[in-house]
Each structure stands twice: as C-alpha cells, then as structure tokens.
Amino acid sequence: MARSRKPDLPVPEPARNYAARGIAALLAPVVRPAFRKRAPAAAALLADWESLAGPEFAARAAPVKFAGGTLTLACTGPAAMELQLVAPTLIARLNLALGQQMIERLRFTRQAPKVLGQSVSPPRHMAAPPKDLPDGALGEALARLYEGVKK
Questions:
Q1: Do 142 and 87 sit in the same domain of this protein?
Q2: Is residue 89 part of a domain?
Q3: Mean pLDDT of 45-66
C-alpha cells in the first residue's frame, strides 16, 4: 500500500516593514565588512557606539571621527562640558569594550548628535492652558494661540 504524500503548501513570506528608516541603519550592514578590514576597532567604535558607550553617553554625543588616538564626538555645548568631566570614565569604558587601549583623549565638536537619523533634543513640555481666560474675543484668541503653540 503506497502512502499518499501531502501536497507542498506554500510557505508564507515574512511580513515586510515599509516604515521609514535612517540611512545609517541601511548602510551599516553594507559598509561594516569593509571598515572591519581596514580599521576593525574604529569600525566597531563607530558602528556600535550606543552599545559600547552606554545609553547615557550615547544620548548626549555621537562619534564623528577617530584618528591618532583622539575620538571626536559631536555634542551640544552643555553636554561637552559634562562629558569633559567624565572623560576618563568614558575613555576607560570604551577601551575596555574594544579590548585594547585605543582612545587616549576626547575632542568635542559643537553640533547636535544624530541618533538613528534624528537629532537628539529634549522633549518639549507645555504648561497646562490657563484656566481663567477672559471672556469674549480676547479669550478665544488666547485659546487659539495656545493650541497653535502646543502643536
């Protein structure tokens, strides 16, 4: 008695994500092998910055350039002042993660760091609308102004 074979069912394709992604997310898998051949530690530093530095440092600064033992970080002015104070800690953390003493000093450039294609900025908090707006046209105009500013 011959066993009947089930017909092969088509395997469904995985769902595709059509959401917008930053160019860095698209290019990283393509250029990572080339960077690893040329400068493996520097490539790891630039490609895996968030995991190497940690979320608290990655949110304030982003690597721009690494040459001659100097790591250049893009950050805002106040963040640069804070990072200068913790520079020895950050350098030690990065060197430990890279497995060798590569980074000797940090240099800061004044620009907002980019994280996944978006500029890092603090969230904008709006105060609650005033409860005691005047009656009439002035109160309506102030309410419209608040709604426009809130967006």
A1: no
A2: yes
A3: 83
